[in-house]
Design goal:
The protein is an all-alpha fold. Helix content is about 40%, strand content about 5%. The relative contact order is 0.18. Keywords: Membrane, Repeat, Signal, Transmembrane, Transmembrane helix.
């Protein structure tokens, strides 16, 4: 679904033939080049080449979730990024230039933008943009029912989940959305879930988890990031999970039984994935980074996603430990990462009924607002405290927190780098097929 990692070294590798050392990845994303002028409607002060649409979409969606009406120019910037066919690329520096065969439109940017535009209910051009995005996403569904990062790419759990959430938000019945091979998105997800008792390597411990993709031999490896995405996708949920949603299939707190054997239903697969996540955060309260050279480092973004997934699966009590860890430890990460990181934390707080305006003593809504144009308005009962930010100022907040794994895949494709080497702080090991 959503992955994050620094743009620092990855951006530098976007030259074919450039050598890449995974250990060189850092937690900070690069500041915008001195020659790069950022649009005034864009959130974040760092180079948006690989995550502009993603971070903008998450920022707008998070503001809507807490009752803040984003600035019109922020919404206009997002709609202006859309290609004529309805899809979105990660970033288009010159929206006036038509998209062509060289424009790498991807499912993740498109899915995130669709969720934001649908939530905002902008009408007019916004509604047209959402309709066009729906049509494009439907048009690039794989025969197995799922989606890859780029059209025609092998289906993966994260991309499939992002698209499910986006289409459901746009009132599309994904349970009856069939590919040319008569497969649904849920068929694709279930094919990426590790069967009970048949975990990869570690035995039954990984049963119920989701893999990102099969490896070259078709083997599935448990991936915490993909599992958080898979839980949300299997439940038909998007990036935002509302607290106390009685419509969800809840799993009893503390339940660890893996249900469904080799043929779980989507609801069973979601419950199994949630049980795996509970175990993954049981010790420290957080997930560990899967980045090479980042041993024993916390994975803040994926931990926030895990909180949302657990809450969506009806395990809000089990989400309490990772939520408390985030409240205590995520401030520096969010400040260094920028708008998408603040949005992730807002989604985690919202899903569990916590107050995003008092998250470990921090006002996430105000902090998010300070990374972009001043909001048009906010809920009068909840002061947003937003500050106006000129993109040419010396704002030091950075934005690697919302870069999706799909963003990383995109960098790998541009730079000719195997995705197996590009490990995000939101994913466990992944490979490019």
């Amino acid at each position: 679904m959503f992955v994050r990692r620094s743009a620092a070294v990855l951006a530098a590798t976007a030259v074919i033939g450039t050598a890449f050392a995974p250990a060189a990845l850092a937690d900070e994303s690069p500041s915008a080049s001195p020659s790069l002028t950022l649009p005034s409607g864009l959130y974040g002060s760092t180079d948006p080449t690989y995550d502009g649409v993603w971070r903008q979409s998450l920022a707008l969606l998070a503001q809507h979730t807490v009752g803040v009406k984003p600035a019109a120019k922020a919404v206009d910037w997002l709609t202006g990024q859309q290609c004529a066919n309805g899809g979105f690329a990660a970033y288009r520096a010159d929206p006036a230039t038509k998209c062509d065969a060289r424009t790498q439109i991807d499912t993740n940017s498109t899915g995130a933008a669709l969720q934001a535009l649908t939530a905002l209910g902008t009408g007019g051009a916004g509604a047209e943009a959402a309709d066009a995005a729906v049509k494009w996403l439907k048009s690039v569904q794989n025969e197995d029912g799922g989606w890859g990062y780029l059209p025609g790419g092998a289906s993966d759990t994260n991309s499939t989940a992002v698209v499910i959430g986006a289409l459901e938000a746009a009132d599309t019945d994904t349970r009856d959305l069939r590919s040319k091979d008569d497969r649904t998105p849920y068929d694709a997800l279930l094919g990426l879930a590790l069967p009970c008792g048949k975990g990869a390597g570690a035995g039954a411990d990984d049963g119920g988890a989701f893999a990102f993709q099969p490896d070259k031999k078709g083997k599935l490896a448990a991936n915490a990031d993909a599992t958080a995405a898979g839980v949300l996708g299997a439940l038909g949920e998007g990036l935002v999970a509302d607290p106390e949603d009685d419509g969800r299939s809840a799993a009893p707190s503390g339940s660890a039984e893996c249900a469904g054997g080799d043929s779980p239903t989507p609801a069973e697969a979601a419950a199994n994935g949630a049980a795996y996540l509970v175990g993954a955060v049981a010790g420290t309260g957080h997930l560990e980074s899967a980045l090479a050279g980042a041993d024993d480092q916390p994975d803040y973004g994926n931990t926030a996603d895990t909180v949302v997934a657990l809450a969506a699966a009806g395990r809000t009590a089990d989400a309490g430990k990772p939520l408390a860890w985030l409240e205590k430890n995520s401030a520096s990460w969010a400040a260094a990462s920028g708008p998408a990181a603040y949005a992730q934390l807002i989604f985690a707080a919202h899903a569990t009924g916590a107050d995003p305006r008092d998250f470990g003593g921090a006002d996430l809504v105000k902090q998010l607002g300070a990374t972009g144009p001043a909001a048009a308005s906010s809920d009068p009962s909840a002061e947003s405290g937003q500050d106006t930010k000129d993109q040419d100022d010396n704002d030091k907040s950075e934005d690697d927190g919302g870069v999706s794994v799909w963003w990383i895949v995109g960098v790998g494709l541009v730079g000719g780098i195997g995705v197996g080497f590009l490990l995000s702080s939101r994913t466990k090991k992944q490979r490019q097929p």
